Amino acid sequence: MKPLLSIILLPLLLVGCSQTVDERADEYVDLSFTLCGAKVKTYSQGDDGKIRVICENDSYFLVKDKETLAYMNELNGAYCYGKGFSVFNERSNYYTFTCKDEKSFNIPK
């Protein structure tokens, strides 16, 4: 009886605690929309793990991973006052970005 109960409850537990791929993608596209300050034209994650976003207003950014995308949100609030980026690039030792108001920054990692 115990093994049968485990077989029934385990999938229910896993389904209840995890998000679908589509839900996670929606979250990242929503975050990308905030960082663009416009609609997202293209959002993709390559085999190399890098996330590429092109915004409808032709701004773009390329980041290494989802953690950097989340950190970008903090940088957007602190340096761009939540208006978004024109350009954002992640380098090996620092982030280079230009806010919508044309202010440029190089922030060490």
Task: State mean pLDDT (0 to 100 scale).
Answer: 76
Number of strands: 6
Spatial strand arrangement across the major sheet:
1-2-3-4-5-6
User: What percent of the residues sit in helical stretches (DSSP H or I)?
Assistant: 40-55%
Organism: Photobacterium proteolyticum
Signal peptide: 1-20
Protein name: Lipoprotein
Keywords: Signal
Could you characterize the architecture of this molecule?
- The chain has 109 residues and is of the alpha+beta class.
- The chain has a domain of 62 residues.
- 42% of the residues lie in helices and 29% in strands.
- The protein has 3 helices and 6 strands, in the order ααβββαβββ.
- Strand 2 and strand 3 form a beta hairpin.
- The N terminus is likely disordered.
List keywords for this structure.
single chain, 109 residues, 6-stranded mixed sheet, 42% helix, globular, disordered N terminus
